[in-house]
Amino acid sequence: MAEHKLLERHANANWYVIHTYSGYENKVKANLEKRVQSMGMEDKIFQVLVPVEEEVEIKDGKKRTVQKKIFPGYVLVEMVMTDDSWYVVRNTPGVTGFVGSGSKPTALDEEEVKQILRQMGLLEEEAPKPKPKPRIDLELGQNIRVRSGPFDGFIGVIDSIDVERGKVRVLVSMFGRETPVELDFTQVEKL
Predict the structure, then answer these.
(1) Distance (Å, rounded) from C-alpha 27 to C-alpha 12?
(2) Cα torsion for 48, 93, 23, 19, to the nearest 10°?
(3) Domain with CATH 2.30.30.30 in the chain
(4) Domain 136-190 is in which class?
(5) d(CA 2, CA 162)
(6) How far is CA 3 from the centre of its chain?
(7) What is the mean pLDDT of residues 4-12?
(8) Main-chain dihedrals φ then ψ at residue 30, nearest 5 degrees
């Protein structure tokens, strides 16, 4: 498989990490892309990337896939580092600075970039796209109510959580004794 578009190398370009105000990553990306166009820097600043991964969120017993930022407060920029390109990026609203030692930005090496793209599911030649990770707000020992299935309405205590499989083992009281039951995350709700 050919290299992903994000790995196409531009002459003398490297990937750098910029620090932003938390929650402003997408706004910084949009602002920087506009500034690159309006200031004619397309030959120095090539790509702006907010690293995200898919996560499965369970709310009110319903599964939905959401985009979660891998590095909140950080944005990746592929660019040729010059005084002009540094100035354009550094003075973009929401940018607080480059990541690096002292005043010198440190470029990511190619393996670090590949690892981030792999985590985002954008590099498929080495591995299939990762499954969205489930986000759960359940804890061991927590009291829950079963919402569906043969144990609908039962109250129980969470005994174990298997995030990879999206399952919880719940101890429910049946016939005067606690019985372990394996349920899907979507089948339980907090009390």
Answers:
(1) 27
(2) 60
(3) 136-190
(4) mainly beta
(5) 36
(6) 22
(7) 64
(8) -65, -45
CA separation, residue 127 to residues 60, 80, 109, 117 (Å): 33, 30, 20, 11
Q: Which two tokens stand for residue 61?
A: 């017993």
What pTM was computed for the model? 0.64
Q: What is the largest CA-CA distance in the chain?
A: 75
pLDDT at 182 over 60: yes
Per CATH, domain 5-134 is 3.30.70.940: yes
**13, two tokens:** 């370009």
Q: How confident is the model at residue 3 (pLDDT cuts 50, 70, 90)?
A: very low
Residues 14-46 pLDDT 10s: 999 999 998 999 999 999 999 999 999 999 999
Q: Where in the chain is the domain with CATH 3.30.70.940?
A: 5-134
Residues across the chain? 191
